[in-house]
From TrEMBL, chain A:
SMART domains the UniProt entry points to: AAA
BP terms from Gene Ontology: quaternary ammonium group transport
Positions of the ABC transporter domain: 28-258
Gene3D superfamilies: 2.40.50.100, P-loop containing nucleotide triphosphate hydrolases
One Pfam family linked to the record: ABC_tran
MF terms in GO: ATP binding; ATP hydrolysis activity
Keywords of this entry: ATP-binding, Cell inner membrane, Cell membrane, Membrane, Nucleotide-binding, Translocase, Transport
Family affiliation: Belongs to the ABC transporter superfamily.
Stretches the record annotates as Disordered: 1-21
Protein name: Putative 2-aminoethylphosphonate ABC transporter ATP-binding protein
UniProtKB/TrEMBL annotation, chain B:
Protein name per the record: Putative 2-aminoethylphosphonate ABC transporter permease subunit
Organism of this sequence: Shinella kummerowiae
Keywords assigned by UniProt, alphabetized: Membrane, Transmembrane, Transmembrane helix, Transport
Recorded topology in the membrane: Multi-pass membrane protein
GO CC, alphabetical: plasma membrane
Length: 390, 671
């Protein structure tokens, strides 16, 4: 499989390479995992190694197999084929009750007729622990999630965010070796989500528990994960740190799913150039041969505005001579608070318009407004190429 | 980039993975097997035996027997003669007499007109086939060996019929006009009653949901009263109101209440609550926005009614129609009391079995009665599947606006129907309390002296309470555990859907059919469960099975509302499933469990159809006593016993409400 190359020399563009670098002691090893429902293949040849204490996010659109993979690890839906080792113990076919993990669901799944304390104590009772020990452990957990005053209440009396924290406390009460989070924040509203994101991450660091979280929210994954596993159609598209995934997507799918993209059909020319529309652009073309048909991708935030005359401003902004400068007319502007989203048309790019995000500052400084014709730069190292299917 | 082409294929080597079973899985599997076995024994097997009985025919095969007669010394034998040769010569047994039942007996002496039991002549008999059977006194003899009897013993030799499988019984049924007529009658009665009941129920439900009429709660209460009495009771009330000595006899303008008129009025009475509750539910889930849209589009009242109200409730209406149709066509108590000479299928079963001891013909009528019930059931299930949720989460509940004219009409109609229901109950109440309706109206308690009448006396009432309590207890246990297994276990998909199918089946099986099937199955000495025949146990099992489906669906609905991840959480916390079951599932579902218990209690008190075949002298029941006392002409005591059932059910409902409130306050604090 070929992948997009970039100009920067060092970063690892190979997922397995990244794993080796990150994982001195593997805790969870998944090998050749398949899951099929009749003719439908939900998971296809999944292999993944997770280190002790890592925070991993399974990220992908709905139906990509991320939850199926989580449930296979939990023993809730047995895989069709493949092995799972947890701490060198083969758990492939163990029932859920004999595996070692705590789980938190999107629906919280708190027992409605038990108080908060009873909910948290549910997994501690029946284990031969003395009552006072259980009580002190429950108090400790309640303090940990910051809900000490709520112990006697019932779940329905708490807000969604509080309920999810209780579900988390219940899951970690039994000190599991692995914490599984199945879209834990999806049912919450935006503010609470961001807040709880930090809390979960902090708690995970403090406890050092290996954690896998399933999410379809890329922002959540980027903010929380040590490493992200991007999945689509039952296969792993890429495994890597958030910056790796964002900066160096290995596939067009990853590029498009993480962040936003402008996509242009193009053809590779000799001498490190590609043809988009009817013009040539500088670009890293390693790994491609001349005349290869490609999709060129550039993110809206990576487009640099230069006002009417690029060379005048350029001297201040950037040391090097800008390449890939094009004239563009501003067609639409949308104020999104933190920045302006603009739709540009450029004769050199052909029919397709170009979406670019400009800072409020730049818009003011360069007097960018609807109808204005400005120069924009598509930085060479930010122009990514992906092979286009026949 | 095409992933599918590049990715490898699922390796086919090696065995398919199987999850190691946990202790929980094994316990669950065991429990499911136990409850599944219960349903097979209590439902599947009896019905199967009944079906095979309906296909068994019995006929005396005269060619299968041969006789030899000695002279007076008893040692010199005459020629061997076959029974059918003798019959051809003598014509003692007609062709019709050869058709028999499983109990059929034909005296061998019939073939010897000059037989005298004092004569010294000896007789020999043998079969020509190994299966030919005859009885010599109590001993069953079979086979082709000659057997020798003196004339004193030969007097007690009877031939047994040979059995064969075939549609013979059905042919006989359909060629007997008196019997086949019942099909037409039953369908006609059910159809008319359905139309009337649904119209009335819809009008009432409409009034309660779409008008601002007063006393809605009271009307709701009154309209559910008929559920609390046996279907015999409206029959008795009608006899008092419109019967030969009825006060309102003249209203019928010369027509008799005994027959179609009585059946329809009575059927409307006892099916009304069922139809009313279903349609009420369907109409309650109305989205106000649809009505606002209709108003803003300037639709007329009538157009709004036909395009918004009726389509919204159409699944409810269809469902209610099927329920009513099935109830009427399978009901036995009402036509028994008020039907007169008008024959109905369910009564035919009773007459064939109890009156004529013709079990095969009873089985035939049962199979015929199963057809419309199963048909109605199947169509209803299909409709239910097509029903989509009309009410989205964002629907705005509809609140009717006052409309003096409309409200008055609705109120008036509800009063009229309530009067009808209360009138029937009041009539029975009066009948139970006066000396001799309508001539001597002095109050008396003599009608409650059940011990002086046939039917079982106060012991029968005690038995009924015992049956109702046991059914409520045992039934809720089995039903809830069964529904839990269907809803909350993974794996054994086939077993679970088979189980669900069995649980849905009782809805389509009329009580008479179930009762008869139980006779066939449990009264067979070869059945190891034969010992429960004639005991309270068989009554409990039969009643639980008879009312299984509604209870099962109630439990299922409650369980479906539970988060499906509870089980996953519990197993991740290493807790056995029974701990979750008793600490969470049961407490959360307690309201539903109590509803199941009261449903089973009330129905066990009022049911007649299934148990009428199964009670013994020790286990007579109140509802059956009503039937038997009415049959014996003791109508006033029958009414009195019917009222006792009514009081008991009202009391049970009150106790249920109290328990529910008290218990729920403790266990449902979280709500």
């Amino acid at each position: 499989m070929r992948h997009a190359m970039s100009i920067e020399p060092t970063p690892v563009s190979n997922a397995r390479g990244a794993e080796e670098a990150h994982t001195p002691s593997p805790y969870l090893e998944i090998t050749d995992l398949w899951k099929s429902y009749g003719d439908f293949v939900a998971l296809r040849d999944i292999s993944l190694t997770i280190a002790k204490g890592e925070f991993i996010c399974f990220l992908g659109p709905s139906g990509c197999g991320k939850t199926t993979l989580l449930r296979a690890i939990a023993g809730l839906d047995l895989q069709t084929h493949g092995t799972i080792l947890q701490g060198n113990r083969n758990i492939s076919t163990l029932p859920a009750s004999r595996r070692d993990y705590g789980i938190v669901f999107q629906s919280y799944a708190l027992f409605p007729n038990l108080t908060i304390e009873q909910n948290i104590a549910f997994g501690l009772e029946n284990t031969g622990r003395p009552k006072p020990e259980i009580a002190s452990r429950v108090a400790e957990l309640l303090a940990m999630v910051g809900l000490s005053a709520q112990g006697k209440k019932y779940p329905a009396q708490l807000s969604g965010g509080q309920q999810q924290r209780i579900a988390l406390a219940r899951a970690i009460a039994i000190s599991p070796g692995l914490l599984l989070l199945d879209e834990p924040l999806s049912a919450l509203d935006a503010k609470v989500r961001v807040h709880l994101r930090h809390e979960i991450k902090a708690l995970q660091r403090k406890l050092g528990v290996t954690t896998i979280m399933v999410t379809h929210d890329q922002e959540e994954a980027l903010a929380m994960a040590d490493r992200i596993v991007v999945m689509n159609h039952g296969v792993i598209e890429q495994v890597g740190s958030p910056t790796e995934i964002y900066r160096h997507p290995r596939t067009l799918f990853v590029a498009d799913f993480i962040g936003e993209t402008n996509q242009f059909p193009g053809k590779v020319l000799p001498d490190g150039q590609i043809e988009i529309g009817h013009s040539a652009f500088c670009c890293a073309t390693e790994g491609f041969a001349a005349d290869d048909i490609v999709t060129a991708v550039v993110r809206p935030v990576d487009i640099i505005p230069h006002g009417a005359d690029a060379h005048a401003v350029n001297a201040v902004d950037r040391p090097a001579t800008p390449q890939n400068l094009i004239d563009a007319e501003v067609r639409e502007m949308e104020f999104l608070g933190m920045f302006w989203r603009t739709r540009l048309t450029a004769p050199r790019l052909g029919e397709r318009s170009l979406v670019a995000d400009f800072s409020v500052n730049a818009v003011r400084r360069l007097s960018i407004e609807t109808g204005a014709v400005i120069q924009v730069e598509i930085p060479r190292e930010r122009l990514l190429l992906f092979p286009r299917g026949a | 980039m095409n992933i599918d082409l590049e990715a490898p294929y699922l390796p086919l080597v090696g065995k398919r993975l199987r999850q190691e079973s946990s202790r929980d899985d094994r316990i669950k599997l065991g429990l499911m097997a136990v409850i599944g076995l219960y349903l097979v024994v209590a439902l599947g097997a009896p019905l199967f035996i009944m079906l095979s009985k309906s296909l068994s025919t019995y006929r005396f095969d005269l060619a299968a027997f041969e006789f030899q007669v000695s002279d007076e010394t008893g040692t010199n034998w005459g020629p061997v003669v076959a029974a059918d040769a003798l019959n051809q010569k003598l014509g003692v047994v007609t062709d019709e007499e050869l058709v028999s039942s499983s109990d059929g007996r034909l005296a061998a002496t019939k073939f010897f007109p000059d037989f005298s039991f004092r004569s010294p002549v000896h007789y020999r008999i043998r079969g020509t086939t190994a299966d030919a059977a005859f009885l010599a006194g109590p001993t069953l003899e079979k086979g082709t060996e000659w057997r020798d009897y003196d004339s004193g013993t030969f007097r007690r030799v009877v031939l047994r019929p040979a059995s064969s499988l075939g549609l013979e019984n059905f042919k006989t049924y359909f060629s007997t006009p008196a019997l086949a007529r019942s099909i037409y009658n039953s369908v006609l009665m059910a159809a008319i009653s359905t139309v009337v009941t649904i119209s009335v129920a819809f009008a009432l439900a409409y009034g309660l949901t779409r008008s601002c009429m007063p006393l809605k709660g009271l009307f709701r209460g009154i309209l559910t009263i008929p559920i609390l009495v046996p279907s015999l009771l409206p029959g008795i009330a009608l006899v008092y109101l419109f019967g030969n000595q009825g006060v309102f006899k003249d209203w019928l303008m010369g027509y008799s209440i005994y027959g179609p008129i009585g059946i329809v009025i009575g059927s409307v009475f006892f099916t009304l609550p069922h139809a009313f509750l279903i349609i009420l539910t369907a109409l309650s889930i109305a989205d106000a926005r649809h009505y606002e849209a209709a108003t803003s589009l300037k639709a007329s009242k009538w157009r709004t009614f036909t395009t918004v109200t009726v389509p919204g409730a159409r699944f409810g209406i269809v469902s209610a129609a099927f329920v009513v149709f099935t109830l009427v066509i399978t009901d036995f108590g009402l036509p028994k009391v008020i039907g007169g000479q008008y024959s109905m299928l369910a009564v035919d079963i009773y007459k064939q079995v109890i009156g004529q001891q013709n079990f095969e013909m009873g089985a035939v009528v049962s199979v015929i009665l199963l057809v419309p019930a199963i048909l109605a059931f199947a169509v209803d299930r299909r409709m239910q599947k097509r029903q989509v949720a009309l009410l989205s989460a964002r629907a705005v509940p509809y609140a009717p606006k006052p409309n003096a004219g409309m409200d008055r009409i609705c109120f008036g109609f509800a009063c009229l129907v309530s009067l009808f229901i209360l009138g029937m109950i009041a009539m029975c109440q009066i009948a139970a309390l006066v000396k001799f309706w309508p001539y001597d109206l002095t109050l008396t308690t003599k009608n409650f002296a059940f011990d002086l009448m046939d039917g079982g006396g106060w012991a029968a009432y005690g038995n009924s309470i015992k049956l109702a309590l046991l059914t409520a207890l045992f039934g809720s246990l089995v039903v809830f555990a069964g529904a839990y297994m269907v809803e909350k276990t993974d794996g054994f998909r086939f077993g679970r859907s088979l189980f669900h199918f069995l649980a849905m089946m009782p809805m389509a099986v009329p009580g008479m059919v179930l009762g008869l099937a139980y006779i066939f199955f449990f009264n067979n000495p070869a059945n190891p469960l034969n010992s429960i025949y004639g005991t309270m146990a068989i009554l409990v099992i039969c009643t639980v099975t008879h009312f299984y489906t509604v209870a099962h669906l109630t439990a299922l609905t409650a369980l479906k509302q539970m988060d499906p991840e509870f089980e996953s959480v519990a197993s991740s916390l290493k807790q056995p499933f029974h701990r979750l079951f008793f600490r969470v599932t049961v407490p959360v579902c307690l309201p539903a469990i109590l509803n199941i218990a009261i449903y089973l209690f009330v129905n066990a008190m009022t049911t007649v159809s299934a148990v009428v075949f199964l009670y013994s002298t020790d286990t007579k029941l109140a509802s059956v006593a009503v039937l038997n006392m009415d049959d014996a002409g003791d109508i006033a005591p029958a009414a009195a016993m019917g009222m006792m059932i009514f009081y008991t059910n009202v009391a049970a409902k009150l106790v249920h409400a109290l328990i529910a409130r008290g218990l729920l306050a403790r266990t449902q604090a979280w709500r």
